[in-house]
Amino acid sequence: MTKHIGIVAVSSEGAALCYRTICLEGSEFLGPHEHPEITLHGFSLGSYQRLIDEDRWDAVGEMMLESAAKLVQSGAQLLICPDNTVHQGLDLVRERSPAQWIHIAEEVAGEARRRGFKRLGILGTRYLMEGPVYPSKLTSAGIERRVPNLEQRERINQIIYDELVNARILPESRAYFQNVIRDLAVGGCDAVALSCTEIPLLISPADSPLPVLDSTRILARAALRKAI
Length: 228
Description:
By secondary structure, this protein is of the alpha/beta class. The protein is built from 10 helices and 8 strands. It has a 4-stranded parallel β-sheet, sandwiched between helices. Helix 1 (about 10-30) packs across helix 10 (about 215-225). The termini are close together.
């Protein structure tokens, strides 16, 4: 018997990649064309973004709990959210969740520790790179973090919201990310965390000057392991 996975969706592209990963890689554990039962619920990205822009992270968390309740009513036994940024809201309400959450930053930190990385470059939305989601998780794992400079953070944020969440994958944006990752390597990073769930659509391990931690697939694989 496998556990029923509930996906709290925020952006369509990140949620789709996570769902696809669970389905495709489920066969490695369960046999051809098999995967755990999955239910997905999502409010619009715009609904979340209005609250984020107003710095209302408690309300973000409440929206996630509302999604979680709908998923549990549908039978979900464990919950994931393939969106790094909104975990700032989840951290405020997690203890009230109706089911177990798998936390994306905890899974990335655990994978970084397993692979022996000491200093991670963090790429994501501006809110994520400047916010509290990753620092505490990495510190408790004994891992340092670095983020791009202010100008780079602004440009990365623009690429995510104007392009990636709309499924626009542009070569010039890939080149920009590659240059940012090179700068992080010069700054002493030994790996980079793709801590926006759409970035893996743009940057693959083969594209990156540093080893990558793909937060979307790390989360999906963690859900698979716990589900089976």
